[in-house]
Specification:
With about 160 residues, this protein is of the alpha+beta class. About 40% of the residues lie in helices and about 20% in strands. Strand 3 and strand 4 form a beta hairpin.
Length: about 160
């Protein structure tokens, strides 16, 4: 093998992982599980959605892309660690979070599970009350307040 092949092999071999994504020696993601065309299509979709700009045939992240990253990082950074709550499950929670807020919806579900909520039906959960004020304030700040309804049950829910 030539030095050229060795370098290319080292750069392409996943040696490291960051947040579950294989990275090469330069810490660039390796998209080996995706077809090249799929990756190209995603870059063009991000460009068409206004998150990237193209200069000299290369893609660069723009202001909208940076704002999107900041927004998603805020969701990932905000991790609520609930205390063990032995209260009866007497809070019925219904939500209808739109598809364009999928990341927020997934975060919301994971957080409900941390708060000992159980799913009764899709988008219908029951758990202990009250939900912490800090959590409710955060839900409001990310624009989910109008998508969520809660009802106090007369008796605790038994699964």
């Amino acid at each position: 093998m030539s030095i050229k092949s060795d370098i290319l092999e080292i750069l392409n071999t996943p040696q490291f992982y960051y947040k579950g994504i294989a990275m090469n020696a330069l810490f660039l993601p390796i998209f080996e599980n995706n077809k090249k065309q799929s990756v190209r299509n995603k870059f063009h979709q991000l460009y068409n959605d206004g998150y990237l700009e193209k200069r000299d045939g290369k893609f660069f992240i723009n202001k909208n892309g940076k704002e999107y990253l900041i927004k998603t990082k805020k969701l990932q950074l905000r991790n609520f660690e609930p205390t063990l709550n032995n209260n009866p499950k007497n809070l019925l929670l219904l939500y209808d979070i739109p598809e364009n807020k999928k990341k927020e919806r997934d975060w919301f579900r994971r957080t409900l599970i941390k708060y000992s909520f159980v799913m009764i039906q899709r988008s219908v959960w029951v758990g202990p009350s009250p939900l912490p004020k800090e959590f409710l304030d955060y839900v409001k700040s990310i624009g989910l307040k109008d998508s969520i309804k809660t009802f106090k049950l007369e008796k605790g829910y038994k699964s």
